[in-house]
Amino acid sequence: MFKRLRNRFLAINMVILSVLFVGAFAVTYIFTYNNTQQDIHMRLEHILREPRDFQKNQPEWLEENKKPDWPPEVPNKRMQMPKLSVDFVLELDQDGNLLEVHSVFDIDDAVYQEAAQYAGTSEKDGGKIRSEDTLWQFRRIPTTEGVRVAFLDVSAEYGVLARLMIVFGIVSLLSLLLIFFICLFFANRAIRPIEEAWEKQKRFIADASHELKTPLTTINANVDVLLTQPVSTEQEKWLRYIKGETERMTKLTNDLLYLARMEAEETLDSEVVLLSEIVAQTVLAEEAVAFEKQIMMEEEIEEDLFVAGSRDKIRQLLLILLDNAVKYAEEGGTIRIRLRREERHALLMVYNSGDSLEADECKKIFDRFYRSDDARDRKNGGYGLGLSIAGAIVSHMKAEIWAEGAGDGTKFFVRIPLAYTTQVKG
Hints:
The radius of gyration is 41 Å and the shape is elongated. Helix 5 (275-292) runs parallel beside helix 6. By secondary structure, it is an alpha+beta fold. It has helices at 2-49, 109-121, 155-228, 233-264, 275-292, 311-328, 359-364, 374-379, 386-396, and strands spanning 87-93, 98-102, 126-131, 134-142, 146-153, 271-274, 296-301, 306-309, 334-342, 345-353, 400-405, 409-417. The strands form 3 sheets. The chain has a 5-stranded antiparallel beta sheet, with helices on both faces.
């Protein structure tokens, strides 16, 4: 129980922190990406408006055997390096044929032809094209002769974005891993006092129940002895009242001890058992009790449903559900038991006519000592522990149990994983 609580606490924290990390990195990446795109678009617009020609517009420092003429003196004495980018402009006619190339870089003619063919057939005014190891981004505008297309090498920019994503991923994983261990440490510290209090409570209940067994047994035995002696009618009435309450207290202490043992055990002895057979036998045993209240029992049991579990515990689970149905079904009412296959599970349904449970009662019905009607439960001899024991048995079997109001009655469902997913033929 506490492991599940801790794991749920960790899962919630990790999900929240993961969303925050992803959100923060996504905002940062989107902001960087948009700035990069704006810069690329501005440079493309500048290139389109002022195309540079390799022969006519070539800067002096790119001529052969010449070095760039940097500003001789800068106030902070740092050299201001110009930002260079490989770009070119293509002039195309209406049919997409290449008319002219403007570039200050010596690029292979095959690149120009490939770029012209792509830009001429593209239906968009902008986009990207990869040529060998270079990623080009282009933008085009119409001219009197056709279109003018500017191409810009954006390999470096997109390389930075890709590295940024890798860095974000690594930082996120390392941060989440560190946060996981920090959360695990604090989760264990936060749960430890609760776990200790729970263990003390269970120990107290087990010890108190054990200590009460001996005096209750003694009282019950003494009352039996007194009842064998000649007593007046009035005295016999009080002795039988004492005996009845003693037996109720004995049952309560036995249930508390059993529940404490169930919660202390990590696993139960398990074997593959024929659930269909156990249900049929248990229903048959309870028919006599139902007959006394003139309750009709209807059963619909699918054959050859095998589950993994303890035969005795499964039988006890069924007895609790059937006993509960008999207690709360009105006289002359109906109890229906249905067992059927549901994909990879066996689904058991126990219905009793009578008062229906409310939605909030269905959630609390398996809590210890919970009773929807105290007066009626005391009249029926219940303390609200039977369904708690049923819940503990189901939990050990890795199964599910829940209750539903049916309008004219109440339904209890138990879903148990099948040991065999295909029908076993005898």
